[in-house]
Amino acid sequence: MRTLISTAFVSLDGVVEAPGGEPGYRNSGWTFKDVEFLPEAYELKGREQKEATALLMGRVSYEAFSPVWPDMEEFADYKVMPKYVVSTTLTEDDLVSNWNETTILRSLDEVAALKETEGGPIIVHGSAALNRNLSDAGLIDRYHLLVFPLLLGAGKRLFSTTDKDAQKLKLVEHEVYANGMQKQIFDVVR
């Protein structure tokens, strides 16, 4: 069974919306506008590309990333790996042609089936709604969180507000950086 890893830039109050400057959110760009950049705090991002064997995202993140990431040197490893987009509305004609193999999945059942295939870790970038749904369905195995010392208030959250049983997590790696950021890696305890 493949490991499904959710990776996120998250504010201390759980907001994941528009960390890189995506339009339409009041605090857009909060990862680089409001916190000093320290390269060592982002080591995890490079490691993720080396360890992941597939990239999973929702439609909104696909539409944001696919015009930009294929040509970015920082994301060269993602360009060559298979990508999966969970969407009920995207069609094959909506997919970009310069980002290697991309498969549209129509349901969480198809994500669960993907996890049962042979291969290494699958990483989920962005995709707030997809992350909440994956978590509620018990499909996420690990969280890679870069927590920023900010309270953003309103905004899309990483974790759902669904009334459900507690989910235990095991902290397997952590680090605190001089700029107040924290790396927190948790395995989901089953």
From TrEMBL:
<dbReference type="Pfam" id="PF01872">
    <property type="entry name" value="RibD_C"/>
</dbReference>
<protein>
    <submittedName>
        <fullName>Dihydrofolate reductase family protein</fullName>
    </submittedName>
</protein>
<dbReference type="InterPro" id="IPR002734">
    <property type="entry name" value="RibDG_C"/>
</dbReference>
<feature type="domain" description="Bacterial bifunctional deaminase-reductase C-terminal">
    <location>
        <begin position="2"/>
        <end position="182"/>
    </location>
</feature>
<dbReference type="InterPro" id="IPR050765">
    <property type="entry name" value="Riboflavin_Biosynth_HTPR"/>
</dbReference>
<dbReference type="InterPro" id="IPR024072">
    <property type="entry name" value="DHFR-like_dom_sf"/>
</dbReference>
